[in-house]
UniProtKB/TrEMBL annotation:
Pfam families: 5_nucleotid_C (PF02872). One of its GO terms (molecular function) is hydrolase activity. This is 5'-nucleotidase-like protein. GO terms for biological process: nucleotide catabolic process. PANTHER family: 5'-NUCLEOTIDASE, 5'-NUCLEOTIDASE-RELATED. InterPro entries: 5'-Nucleotdase_C, 5'-Nucleotdase_C_sf, 5_nucleotidase/apyrase. The lineage of its organism: Bacteria, Pseudomonadati, Bacteroidota, Flavobacteriia, Flavobacteriales. GO terms for cellular component: outer membrane-bounded periplasmic space. Residues 86-226 form the 5'-Nucleotidase C-terminal domain. It comes from Flavobacterium aquaticum.
Length: 262
């Protein structure tokens, strides 16, 4: 009886060894396989399956609360603010630049004891109009849906001149504040640049408020990227809009010319 048990044990052990060897050989043989083709399939998101009522019921209190905040009226706009209307500047661009200059200065002065001289944003960053009527928190999210923050960049007067040349060459109504560029109406050559109604000093450092996107060279604004003087105000441009809307009763329609033809 003991002999039989021993024989069975030996047989079982041999079987395990044989199985392990076969698995080893199998795994080894598959290692030579190579991917030759990958195919993908586009699956559209449609209403074919309908709405999941359980999920919709669960989410509803949260979505209702968010919509309540987004739809809260902050101010009134007597005239539509539109970036597409205007050659060198637009009313919404003037507004956003002035908001950034005004509220950004409060933070910059408190943190660095310095003053912003100029504000420059980009035309493409404005993603919606501010329609005539009530202005809400949702309006700010629609106009500026990105998470861009205020960066103050130090530029020399010579670099400010490069900035002005960029604006004239682009021929886009980029939001601009604190700066006037006088150009020849026939050749578009720059005749004069003023910063806060004072002639440009090429040897002075000017502080320009802009977005983190542009400060890193976005929209080919390399004059910002190359600067070593940068201050992060940790203040989102969209939040500035919301704070400004809360502060005023009526949104101004700013039509002041920044690019002056002579």
């Amino acid at each position: 009886m003991l002999v039989n048990v021993k024989k069975n044990t030996i047989s079982f052990g041999f079987f395990v060894i044989l199985l392990t060897f076969n698995l080893f050989i199998s795994c080894k043989s598959t290692s030579s396989y190579q991917t030759t083709k990958i195919e993908g399939k586009k699956i559209g998101v449609t209403n074919e399956k309908g709405e999941n009522e359980a999920i919709a019921t669960y989410v509803k209190p949260y979505s209702d609360n968010i919509n309540k905040d987004l739809n809260s009226v902050l101010a009134y706009c007597p005239e539509t603010q539109d970036k597409s209307k205007g050659t060198w500047q637009s009313n919404i661009g003037n507004l956003l630049a002035e908001i950034t200059f005004e509220l950004g200065n409060l933070v910059f002065q408190k943190r660095e004891n310095k003053t912003i001289d100029v504000c420059l944003l980009n035309h493409g960053g404005i993603r919606a109009v501010i329609p005539k009527g009530n202005v809400t928190t949702r309006t700010a999210f629609e106009v500026m849906p990105f998470e861009n923050s205020l960066i103050v960049v130090g530029l020399t007067g010579k670099e400010i001149k490069t900035l002005a040349e960029y604006i004239i060459k682009e021929k886009k109504p980029h939001p601009l504040y604190g700066m006037k560029i006088y150009i020849d109406k026939s050749t578009s050559a720059i005749n004069k640049i003023e910063i806060n109604n004072q002639p440009l000093d090429e040897n002075r450092i000017y502080y320009v408020g802009t977005s983190d996107y542009l400060a890193n060279g976005g929209d080919n604004m390399t004059f910002f990227k190359e600067s070593k003087i940068k201050f992060d105000m940790e203040y989102k441009l969209r939040n500035m809009m919301i704070d400004y809307f809360k502060k005023v009763d009526t949104i101004p329609n700013i039509t002041t010319e920044k690019i002056i033809l002579e």
